[in-house]
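During the second half of the funding period, the structural biology subgroup turned its attention to how the target accommodates small molecules. The most pressing case was adenosine-5'-triphosphate, which had performed well in the primary screen but for which no bound structure existed. We therefore specified the complex as follows and requested a full 3D prediction, including the ligand pose.
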Amino acid sequence: MITFNQLRVGYRGRAVTPAIDGTLAQGSMTALVGANGSGKSTLLKTLAGAIPPVSGSVSRPNPPVRFAWLPQQADIEKQFPVSVFDIVAMGCWPRTGWLRAVSRSQRNEIMLALETVGMDAFAKAQPGTLSGGQLQRVLFARMLMQQAQLLLLDEPFSGIDEKTVALLLSLLHERHQDGCTLVVVLHDSQTVERHFMQVLRIGSEQVSWQQNQATVVPLAAARRGGTSC
Ligand SMILES: Nc1ncnc2c1ncn2[C@@H]1O[C@H](COP(=O)(O)OP(=O)(O)OP(=O)(O)O)[C@@H](O)[C@H]1O
C-alpha cells in the first residue's frame, strides 16, 4: 500500500533519519518506535504529505485513500473557541466539505462517536476545560468520524490512564479489523509487543523492521477496561 524507497525525511533539505526502505501493507498495524528526536513525527508528517521527503520517495496508494492524522497533543490548540461537539464534527469535513452544517444523521453519528469514547456528556464543553485524557478521547471520536482508511497517530497514549489506553486500543483494533492501515508512534514497549504485529524502529544509523506475535486484547475485555492491556 505504502512503499518507502531510500526515503530520508527532515526539514529544509536536512535529513533527520537514515534511509528507509520497506512497505506498509494494506491492513497492517505498525508501531513506529525510536529515541526522542529520531524522526518519528517527521516521518508521520511526511506520510501525511505535510512536508516533502528530503531524498528518496514514498509511494502512496493509487487511487488515493482517505487518511486521518492525530498529531501529538502538544500540537493541538486547546483554547480554540469551539465545543467538543464541533471538534468531532470536523471529522465530517472530508465527506461534507469545509464548514458545511452537519445533517441530522451526522449529528447522531457524532453523538454516537462521543458515546463510544465515553464523552457524550461533554458535547457542549470547551476543549480548554478538558483533561488531557478527555481531550484525547474527543480526538479519537473525531478520527472515527473521518472514516479514514489510513490512520497516522503520534504518541496517542502519552499521559493517558490505563483504562483510557485500553479503550483507545480497542478502538484501534476495531478499525484494524475493518481493514484500516495504522501507523502509531509509541514509546511503551509492552504496548508495542502486545498489540502490534509490525514494528519500524528508527535508529540513528539505520532503521529496522520487526514482526511480532502480537496478542490482541479481546475487544469486549478492553471496552470493559480489563487489565490485559
Ligand atoms: N519544524 C522543524 N524544523 C526543523 N527541525 C525540526 C522540526 N521539527 C523537528 N525537528 C528536528 O527533527 C528531529 C526529529 O524530530 P521528531 O519530532 O521527528 O522526533 P521524534 O522521533 O518524533 O521525537 P519524540 O520521541 O521526542 O517525539 C529533531 O532533531 C528535531 O529537533
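Two results from this model are relevant to the next phase. The longest strand covers residues 2-8. The helical segments are 40-47, 84-89, 93-96, 104-116, 132-146, 162-177, 189-195, 219-223.
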